[in-house]
Amino acid sequence: MGQPVAPLYDLDGFRGRDNVPDPSGVDAAFDAGDTAFNTGWTQTTGQLIRFRMVVKQTVGTAVNHNNLVTEFILQYENATAGGGFLDVGAVGGGSEDVDFAAATGFADGDNTAQVIGSGTNVAGDSMETNAASDSITFSEETSGQECEIEVSVIVNAAQVTDGDVINFRLLFSDNNEAPPATQLNAETNAPTLTVDKPAASGRIMSSLVGAGGLAGEGGIAGIGGGIAG
């Protein structure tokens, strides 16, 4: 029996759902209002966003005659602020730039079919509350297979600045060849977004109210009298 060959994985494509961010079903179709394939998008803080990734196995497990069972782990990086890649935070955590977000359109662990890929597809997985996917099985000796992973996340306004660029990547671990939390061998097309952080409404009011504060009956009194009531 020959020696097994370590698998190679490529994050080969992605697409964001920014038109209808939480459609019904993990395999919901994309439409013209969503982002283009392999194109980054602008994301408003505090709003749930779902996006989908294609992972391709570029080298099979060769002659060991064991199916390769793989788990994937989602990480993010605030490329503007620095600090490197970190695990996406738990639902409602709030201390990370990006947290998982509970979706209504699918449940964590729902298997995915092929929606945005084009190769030989195996059943993938979805993540909305769990940092690691369920096990995904690639065929024992076949290269070129791919799976799709759908995730649901939210960008935390308290942790980011308007215009920050956030990148995503996947780590993998498998039951035969690789140690836990190994970076994919290639990231041909990795998801990226630019943060849109709306100004707080309180800032608008403070700019209208001057040194004189609010007038009694009639309106807003600013510096030097402002608007009389």
Describe this structure in words.
By secondary structure, this protein is mostly beta strands. The protein has two domains: 8-198, Coagulation Factor XIII, Chain A, domain 1 (Distorted Sandwich), CATH 2.70.50; 202-229, no CATH class. The termini are far apart. The strands form two sheets. Strands 2, 4, 5, 9, 11, 12 and 13 form a seven-stranded mixed β-sheet that branches. Strands 1, 3, 6, 7, 8 and 10 form a six-stranded mixed β-sheet that branches. Mean pLDDT is 83; it is low at 203-209 and 213-229. It has one helix and 13 strands; from the N terminus they run E-E-E-E-E-E-E-E-E-E-E-E-E-H.
Helix and strand string, N-terminal first?
EEEEEEEEEEEEEH
The CATH class of the largest domain is identified as Mainly Beta
Mind summarizing the main beta sheet?
A: 7 strands, mixed
Could you tell me the CATH topology label of the largest domain.
Coagulation Factor XIII, Chain A, domain 1
**Envelope shape:** globular
**Proportion of residues in helical segments:** under 10%
Low-pLDDT parts are: 203-209, 213-229
Taken together, the total number of domains comes to 2
Total helical segments? 1
CATH architecture of the largest domain: Distorted Sandwich
Provide the residue-averaged pLDDT: 83
- Counting DSSP E segments of at least 2 residues, the number of strands comes to 13
Q: Rg, please? A: 23 Å
Determine the structural class based on helices, strands and strand pairing. mainly beta
Indicate the proportion of strand residues: 25-35%
User: Termini, distance in Å?
Assistant: 91 Å
